[in-house]
């Protein structure tokens, strides 16, 4: 792989999307799990655990989307045109989630309704992100550098499967975050949920992986031909190892390890996506070089990215360091 400008930008966008999934995934997961926690102390403790960092986490979504628009404008136009419904649903879900997050404290008389909005927004946003991923993997019809499909081409059993898998994965991130960051009844409740959610995520990974091999694009060749299979076989092997390590960590009462191992499972899914798609940004239609902006633009933006991304990482790391302790009913301590 030659690290030219389009490849560098593809890696930067992949990193931004992964950072978003890691950092916003657990607070979306808390929203998804919100109804299973009793109203009052447990819900307050769960939401307090992400209150200092949740809005900053979405910086990475802006970076990923903005980077796609600037670095790969052709792909941005095709993808948005093809996937307007799930993308709009995701944005509306994030808006509802954000408003409910703040309003439930400022309007306690209507807190049950804000809790419903918090859960609904989180669920819709997570499901729409998974559907978007599935629709991208199954392929987008492109003719003459423009979207050539229909309004509902994105809606298939495969995209619904990826949507459900992302919901379960985010819920697992939320549960393991609460195991790490809370105590008492909230932590115990989250610990009971985590093994079942882990089984659901592993089932989703297996189901999506097998279904992907049956799609029209050359995924089957990328994963199973010799000698490539000697490398690609390590991904499911490592997934099984991390799944077993997750189970042992929970049984031994670990707090941080289940969250880190869940992040490891997500990292392996991103490695699988890279194997399946690279160098395409829209499978079967556009690779990163065909969709890229001119080199002069990519070079100019890369200078800014090299400066800004370390700054974003620094203030994000500082925020997590400041709020590194356990959270009780009244807040961090």
TrEMBL record:
> Which coarse location class applies to the principal site listed for this UniProt protein?
membrane
Q: Which residues cross the membrane?
A: 12-37, 82-101, 113-137, 157-180, 192-213, 225-247, 259-282, 302-323
Q: Which UniProt keywords apply?
A: Cell membrane, Membrane, Transmembrane, Transmembrane helix
Q: Where is the signal peptide?
A: none
Coiled coil ranges: none
Check the record and name the InterPro entries matching this protein. Cyt-d_oxidase_su2
**A Pfam family that the UniProt record links to this protein:** Cyt_bd_oxida_II
Q: Where in the cell is it found?
A: Cell membrane
What's the superkingdom here?
Bacteria
What family is it from?
Answer: Belongs to the cytochrome ubiquinol oxidase subunit 2 family.
**What is the protein name given in its UniProt record?**
Cytochrome d ubiquinol oxidase subunit II
Q: Which organism does this record belong to?
A: Luteimonas kalidii
